[in-house]
Design brief:
Blueprint lengths: L1 H15 L2 E5 L4 H16 L3 E5 L5 H10 L4 E5 H9 L6 H10 L2 E3 L9 E5 L1 H7 L14 E5 H5 L4 H8 L5 E5 L1 H9 L5 E5 L4 H4 L3 E2 L12 E6 L2 H4 L1 H8 L7 H12 L4 H13 L12 H36 L1 H16 L2 H12 L3 H11 L1 H13 L3 H9 L4 H31 L12 H10 L2 H29 L2 H8 L1
Parallel strand pairs: 1-2, 6-7, 6-8
Antiparallel strand pairs: 3-10, 4-10, 5-8, 5-9
Helix pairs in contact: 2-12, 2-14, 3-17, 4-5, 13-14, 15-16, 15-18, 15-19, 15-21, 15-23, 16-19, 17-18, 19-21, 21-23, 22-23
Length: about 500
């Protein structure tokens, strides 16, 4: 009895703890700040989690609006661009617009991470480049800009119009790959963030924004306003970082991650530099084996949940398509259209409706898994020899009996093949789940691509490939059990 009472009290205490979910975008600086914020919230007694690598500004902001996350690191220039579409708006105007969406913003953390234009040192010395306006008239320079920089009004289009630049060779690349390009002499100009550790390492020349085009991107924390009521201690703890993180501290933490230090280590560096001996330490990072096992388990959960839904819906839709030929074209066409939607676009459409995490990931995978199952069921039922159908009619079987005992067994090789194809596709596609904070084997792959870390990429890619082989083997065994023996022999001969 006493044990039961103690367990009840402990569980009540656990539920009474403040629960805080911190998000971060898909680049290392945001990961570090997100980890640091989650550590601060946890030090105040909250049950704090960090959902890293959620994608771009729109995705993370939508997650905060929907309540899927409670806080995330952001930049004032980005808020002015995304929220107000006005780079020169005031801080009060930004706060007012955020408040309409149930969001608040802290004061700056202490550093700004603004856009800048950097030039290879040899090019800068040869051409005498010191300012952005020095680029006017040099159309032959090769630029490697990030896709986000190319797509923002405070990025390349705005900069080109503002300064009158006319570069003829402008390529869109991933941020870290741009540094590889300029280091190897394949690019002359890149866009950088002012806290990028690669600026110093590659001795890049950051050009003076002499006409002041780029707005200041001061780091802040965007949080849900209900956090002031729901988790005031966690919010107060996160606010301790306000004014204490300078540019050198942030650049040092970024450099640590670029050197493949664990995220928890970089966050600890930042917290101790910002707060001194009173800084809390992030939780001990899990070992590589523990991390792979955790990611693999989550990946399998995502595959099983989505595949179960695809089977439960796909087989009945395939049956309906085979029995009602007019409906068949619509059903197959609709499933085919779903396959053509880019995964990132589909997730972006689902986030406003379902938030982030497991639910939108499973729904997206479920939709992608439908076509092979619908197609397999439809093909299996529509290719049954006509004589067998006539024999069933002669026996006077009911439609349901005919379907369950004759047609579906005869169509089972095609149906199982469709499910197997869907399962293998889902194993590979489930890596996109990491883009919405659902975890899985896509998480180390995406982080590895960002950090150019082959071990990280392989820690996700190899288990994913092995899992696909396992799935193939499982369905080979399932076919022997489900498909009538005579059909297996016919199917495999």
């Amino acid at each position: 009895m006493l044990g039961a009472i103690a367990l009840l009290l402990a569980s009540r205490g656990a539920w009474a703890r403040e629960r805080v979910a911190v998000g971060s975008k898909a680049f290392p600086e945001s990961w570090i700040l997100g980890e640091a914020l989650a550590t601060m919230a946890g030090s105040a007694g909250s049950d704090a989690t960090h959902r890293a690598n959620l994608g771009g500004t729109e995705i993370v902001l939508a997650a905060a609006r929907s309540g899927a996350i409670d806080a995330y690191p952001e930049y004032t220039g980005t808020l002015r661009e995304v929220i107000l579409h006005e780079p020169h708006s005031t801080t009060d105007e930004v706060r007012a617009r955020l408040a309409r969406n149930g969001l608040g913003m802290t004061d700056p953390l202490g550093f700004d991470d603004s856009y800048a234009i950097a030039v290879a040192p040899a090019v800068a010395d040869r051409q005498g480049f010191r300012r952005i306006s020095d680029l006017v008239g040099h159309s032959g320079l090769r630029a490697a800009f990030t896709h986000e920089f190319l797509g923002r009004t405070d990025g390349w289009d705005g900069l080109r119009a503002y300064y009158g630049l006319q570069l003829s060779d402008v390529r869109g690349v991933q941020h870290e790959l741009a540094f590889d390009a300029i280091a190897s002499g394949q690019a002359d100009i890149v866009d950088v963030y002012t806290t990028d550790p690669q600026i110093e390492r590659l001795h890049l020349r950051v050009l003076d924004d002499d006409r002041v085009f780029f707005p200041r991107y001061e780091a802040v924390v965007v949080y849900r306003l209900d956090l002031e009521r729901r988790a005031p201690q966690a919010l107060a703890a996160m606010r301790r970082l306000v004014g204490h993180v300078d540019r050198a501290t942030m650049a040092g933490a970024n450099a640590a991650v670029a050197d493949h230090a664990p995220l928890a280590f970089a966050a600890a560096m930042l917290l101790h530099a910002a707060l001194g001996p009173d800084a809390p330490s992030p939780p001990t990072a899990a070992s590589m084996a523990e991390t792979i096992a955790r990611d693999l388990v989550r990946h399998v959960e995502l595959v099983v949940a989505s595949l179960a839904g695809s089977v439960a819906v796909g087989i009945p839709v395939g049956i309906l398509a085979a029995k009602r030929r007019r409906i068949g074209g619509v059903a197959l066409g609709g499933a085919g259209v779903l396959q053509t939607i880019p995964s990132l676009a589909l997730l972006a459409l689902l986030i406003p409706l379902l938030g982030i995490g497991v639910v939108p990931a499973v729904v997206a995978l479920f939709l992608y898994g439908l076509l092979p199952i619908v197609q397999g069921t439809y093909t299996g039922l529509t290719t049954i020899p006509l004589g067998l159908g006539e024999a069933a009619d002669a026996l006077g079987l009911r439609r349901a009996t005919r379907l369950l005992e004759i047609e579906l067994p005869l169509a089972s090789p095609s149906i199982v093949a469709g499910i197997r194809t869907s399962a293998v596709i889902t194993v590979g596609t489930a890596t996109i789940a990491a883009l919405v904070g659902a975890g899985g084997l896509g998480d180390p792959i995406l982080r590895g691509i960002t950090l150019r870390s082959a071990p990280l990429i392989l820690s996700g890619a190899v288990p994913s490939a092995l899992l696909a082989f396992v799935v193939q083997g499982l369905f080979a065994g399932l076919e022997r059990v489900v498909v009538p023996r005579g059909l297996v022999l016919t199917h495999t001969d």
